Task: inverse folding
């Protein structure tokens, strides 16, 4: 019977990680629904970006208050997880604070002391974050796309953090043998008086309970990630690695179009050529994107990485002037539709069944797409190298090249370019007239 | 005055069997828009003054395709691009300077993938090299001590990380360079990019150019300097909307320098 807790712990651990990895597989499958795009250039620059932007949080601190608080939570989160290692070993082998038998008590005390300090730092930061979201009501957390689930999602994560940090401190405070060493209990020693008058066994019970809820809480948190905006703690790393390295103004040249254009310009091309017998006539690729499968896998990775902080939207000139466009919503819509498509595939034995919906129209409206000035402010603002602009452009391409659905003024502009080589109705032969005016 | 402008074409150079030092890509706005034509002429005056052997394509130039591409018409963009590249390559053009950040971005970044690789400079970068090489000198004179703020064009700044060349030129005028609240990589768009120049804005509570002009006016400038013909139009309209046209002028960097020289 003595092994019961260990077995229970092992089962919990396997179930927790098992379910998490099952969802990770789904996540990867969904991202791969996107169009293929080979990225294997400039490996060293990509690693550098990942280290600077994701690990080093270089773009987070451009907004100093949120940036600083975020770093506290982030450092706390990573470092306190070292403690989880001890918890897992203790849980599996029935030991208690295995660290103490491996390290000498001052080193162990230093480690736990650091964790305790960080835990308080995280608690304070998380409370400030909550106040920013719920009391101060920062504009970027109030947009229409932030109502309902996205708002709760943001708060749930904060509550998680508060509970986990409190449990960690309570666990230490009620651990009489740990308090007896009096090393590393920098914070928890001040919590001890709260438990004055509790019997030894009551303290032990509280300590064990806190310990168990703490690890179960971590496993739940791990599994919550897949369903929340909080995936960025994992995906920020690949996302910054695969982030765009070209100048931001460089939009890709659609290869399918290049093929057609080159054929049109080729004086030797035979306009009456029939397809070679036996060869299937090639169906031209769809131009642009109307649904998530038409976007590249990087676009889809971007969508899963977005943590809905809204820096993009708050920098967007269209959004600031009251237009419908919100780059954050573009990312959220893309993810929501991708999840919907993924669930559809799961429900239909691995095969996508047309559900009569698509990203364009059902999620993202034309009005949003046409409000974009392509100024790249959203791309510049994103702390984890997400590119909402490339999704907007792909969808404009679909609207114009597949549906001829550009606003009428733009159609006039394009007709002018076609006929006169300028967006205005001037004659190309008058191009040098300015010289003599 | 325009009699004194020397504007040779690429065809003339070709006829003489010569290559110019650089091709000046005038752009559609620079060729046809009344306001932008003044910028074109100011830049040409500076090129003439610095004795730069440049050429224009003249009637052989055509839209780079930028507004088509940003609208999503990749076909039209690539048709324009491939046609322009054929002309440029036939003339064996190596180096291009343009006063339009949209032409600059498109030719520099998007033409190479379609067979057109050139060294491309924005006119502020080119003017800066002329100064550094001592081919052009600037004396503050007229603009000494004037408050000038620079509006970063998106397609020069964020799109291509060119922030300092235009500012260095303003400083050379001994003017007082004042920055707006949002500048450089945080610069707010004028509202014209992404082909917005050619259509009415979507429904909202304000126009982007008015908001940007308000930011500019907060810096209390005497002159708003621009480096893009479209930004120039948008900011000029913004200044009019705020009824400040008697107090604040919108000028291109090339115009500032040409005016300082009384050209």
Result:
């Amino acid at each position: 019977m003595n092994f019961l807790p260990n077995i229970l712990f092992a089962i919990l651990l396997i179930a927790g990680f098992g379910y998490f990895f099952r969802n990770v597989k789904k996540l990867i499958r969904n991202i791969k629904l996107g169009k293929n795009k080979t990225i294997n250039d400039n490996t060293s620059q990509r690693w550098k970006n990942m280290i600077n932007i994701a690990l080093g949080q270089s773009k987070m601190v451009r907004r100093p208050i949120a940036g600083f608080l975020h770093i506290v939570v982030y450092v706390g989160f990573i470092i306190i997880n070292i403690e989880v290692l001890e918890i897992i070993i203790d849980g599996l082998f029935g030991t208690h604070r295995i660290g103490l038998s491996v390290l000498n008590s001052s080193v162990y005390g230093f480690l736990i002391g650091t964790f305790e300090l960080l835990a308080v730092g995280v608690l304070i930061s998380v409370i400030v974050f909550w106040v920013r979201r719920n009391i101060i009501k920062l504009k970027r957390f109030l947009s229409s796309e932030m109502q309902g689930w996205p708002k709760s999602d943001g708060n749930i994560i904060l509550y998680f953090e508060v509970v986990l940090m409190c449990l960690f401190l309570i666990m230490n405070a009620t651990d009489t043998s740990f308090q007896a060493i009096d090393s590393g209990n920098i914070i928890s020693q001040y919590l001890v008086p709260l438990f004055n008058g509790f019997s030894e066994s009551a303290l032990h019970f509280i300590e064990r309970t806190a310990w168990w809820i703490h690890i179960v809480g971590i496993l739940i948190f791990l599994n919550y990630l897949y369903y929340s905006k909080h995936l960025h703690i994992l995906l920020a790393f690949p996302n910054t690695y695969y982030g765009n390295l070209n100048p931001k103004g460089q939009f890709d040249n659609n290869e399918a179009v290049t093929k057609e254009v080159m054929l049109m310009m080729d004086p030797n091309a035979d306009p009456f050529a029939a397809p070679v017998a036996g060869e299937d006539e090639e169906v031209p690729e769809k131009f642009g994107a109307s649904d998530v499968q038409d976007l590249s896998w990087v676009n889809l990775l971007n969508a899963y990485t977005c943590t809905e902080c809204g820096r993009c939207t708050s920098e967007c000139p269209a959004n600031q002037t009251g237009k419908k466009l919100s780059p954050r919503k573009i990312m959220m819509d893309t993810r929501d539709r991708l999840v919907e498509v993924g669930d559809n595939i799961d429900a239909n034995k691995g095969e996508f069944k047309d559900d009569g919906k698509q990203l364009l129209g059902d999620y993202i409206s034309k009005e949003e797409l046409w409000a974009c000035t392509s100024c790249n402010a959203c791309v510049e603002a994103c702390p984890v190298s997400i590119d909402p602009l490339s999704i907007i452009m792909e969808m404009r391409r679909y609207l114009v090249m597949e549906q001829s659905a550009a606003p009428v003024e733009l159609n006039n502009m394009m007709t002018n370019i076609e006929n006169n080589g300028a967006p205005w109705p001037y004659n190309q032969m008058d191009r040098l007239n300015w010289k003599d005016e | 005055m325009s009699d004194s402008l020397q504007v040779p074409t690429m065809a003339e150079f070709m006829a003489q069997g010569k290559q110019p030092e650089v091709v000046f890509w005038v752009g559609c706005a620079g060729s046809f828009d009344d306001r932008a034509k003044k910028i074109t002429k100011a830049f040409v005056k500076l090129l003439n003054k610095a004795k730069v052997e440049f050429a224009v394509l003249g009637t052989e130039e055509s839209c780079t395709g930028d507004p088509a591409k940003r609208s999503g018409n990749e076909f039209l963009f690539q048709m324009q691009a491939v046609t322009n590249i054929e002309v440029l390559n036939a003339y064996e053009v190596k180096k291009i300077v343009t006063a339009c950040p949209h032409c600059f971005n498109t030719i520099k970044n998007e033409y190479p993938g379609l067979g057109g690789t050139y060294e491309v400079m924005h006119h502020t970068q080119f003017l800066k090299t002329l100064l550094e090489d001592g081919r052009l000198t600037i004396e503050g004179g007229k603009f000494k001590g004037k408050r000038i703020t620079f509006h970063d064009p998106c397609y020069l700044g964020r799109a291509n990380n060119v922030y300092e060349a235009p500012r260095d030129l303003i400083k050379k005028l001994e003017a007082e360079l004042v920055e707006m609240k949002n500048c450089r990589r945080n610069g707010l768009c004028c509202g014209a990019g992404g082909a917005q120049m050619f259509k009415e804005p979507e429904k909202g509570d304000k126009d982007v150019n008015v908001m940007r002009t308000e930011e500019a006016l907060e810096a209390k400038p005497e002159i708003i300097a621009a480096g893009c013909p479209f930004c120039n139009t948008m900011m000029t309209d913004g200044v009019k909307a705020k009824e400040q046209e008697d107090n604040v002028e919108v000028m291109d960097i090339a115009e500032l320098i040409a005016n300082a020289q009384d050209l």
